[in-house]
Amino acid sequence: MKRIGYIWLFLAVSGTMLAGTTYLDSCMIRVQDGDTLYLAYLHEVYVYPPMRFKNKRQERFYWRTVRDVKKCLPYAKMITRDMAYADAELAKLPDKKSRRRWWRKFERHLFKKYEKDFRGMYASQGRMLMLLMDRETDRTSYELIKQYKGKATANFWQFVAKLFRNDLKEEYDADDKDRIIERVITLVEAGQL
To answer: Which of 4, 55, 134, 173 has its CA 20 to 30 A from that of 92?
Structure first.
């Protein structure tokens, strides 16, 4: 209690010595009509009902989803930025030959940048990354491959994905089947999980 009194005394004295508004990291001190006001900005807090699991299997699924979202969400955001950059650069180039040359060079750069991280991912994390890419870009993985590499390549990778019981055309549905993932994303972005 004594410590809080010292803090308030310090704020009051420092506030009266400063004229106007002073910014301190995430808080602000303002002197208004001779009164010192301490203002702090708080992050949004999301409140969900507590998770109720029917069995251990369901609980393991939830915590695996948390692990996968925490690992894949930053990559989905980085890849989205890389795609926006690539689209802007490709739009500047005049002909198909120069676009193809630039794309090959950029593709090699991306491969070097992400290869080590992606090779260490679990299959469930790869699937999560595909869903998060659909969430970030509003285009399925199949559509993205088709846009950048062509329809034949997209069909080949769809065939490979089907061999491993996956689907590149799967869409992210935040309202129904992916609502748990959306909840986890919201909590991770808010720093609550």
So the answer is: 134
